[in-house]
Sequence to fold (348 residues):
Amino acid sequence: MNQGHCHPRILEAAVAQMHKVTLTSRAFFNDQLGPFMRELCELTGYEMALPMNTGAEAVETAIKAARKWGYRMKGVPDNQAEIIVCEGNFAGRTTTLISFSSVEQYREEFGPLTPGFVTIPYDDADALEAAITPNTVAFLVEPIQGEGGVRVPSPGYLQRVAEICAAHNVLFVADEIQTGLGRTGALLCCDHEGVRPDMVTLGKALSGGFYPVSAVVADRKVLGLLRPGDHGSTFGGNPLGSAIARAALNVLVDEGLVDRSREIGAYFKGRLERIEGEHIQEVRGKGLLIGVELTRLARPYCDALRDAGILAKDTHGTVVRFAPPLVVTKEQIDWAMERIEPILMNGH
Fold:
């Protein structure tokens, strides 16, 4: 919800497109898809984009593209490609994506699972280097683990990761579905360290909360390997979704929401850090993606917050995750803090 709920400009674009045409076959061009792809590529600085619908589909697309690149460009033997992932990751709930989850509930009774993934600890660049083999095609990582508890890696981690991947001819794939498009106070979370992944997955805020829109962005050397028919989607890149996403990106830029996220996020995080609750272990995050680690289960606190009018999600058991829309004002943060502070201080 980076652009807030039912942003009027995005709503207007959606309604206008609904009066024209909502869906065309991917075998044909439509007048919204091309401009959407161009604008997304220009904003993110990549040569190509491939649109899908859900975040899970974007990650699946990145996996397929990375494997094809490995076979075509790196010479990995057929069906031997390996992708390195991190403990605590969350990429979605398709059969392939749960196959590399470290949460047992997501995997239990859904096997057999998809092979080809190697798991290492998060925020450990040495573990990445040690895990790379001649068959490694990509390293898939969240710049901040959202579902994993708003885990922020050590300064320099992403830079080191990028260097290791480049040195070993491995694609650096950043899952920015939750962290991207201004959420952390930069357009992409990787921008904080000045690194440019080989592939980036985007979703969630790409449609301003109106409609499922996701995408993978990369340069031609990777996405250009996909031929017509290799990959696709009935609804991916449809005129309605494309028109909505164009408006969502325009709002992000025109209203300065990236800068706003950084400024308001610092204010919000500062207010949270000043709460003196005995159950508060740590406050961490960037921009308006903030986690409060507790010494006890977070769910009862989130229930109490909900009853007080604050929607926050418990994640990784003991973390309360705050991720308000980037349009939030200081006055709204102050209103929220009047309710958050007593709940986090005194318990639920």
Notes: The CA atoms of residues 142 and 246 lie 24 Å apart. The longest helix spans residues 55-74. The longest strand covers residues 280-286. The chain is about 40% helix and 15% strand.
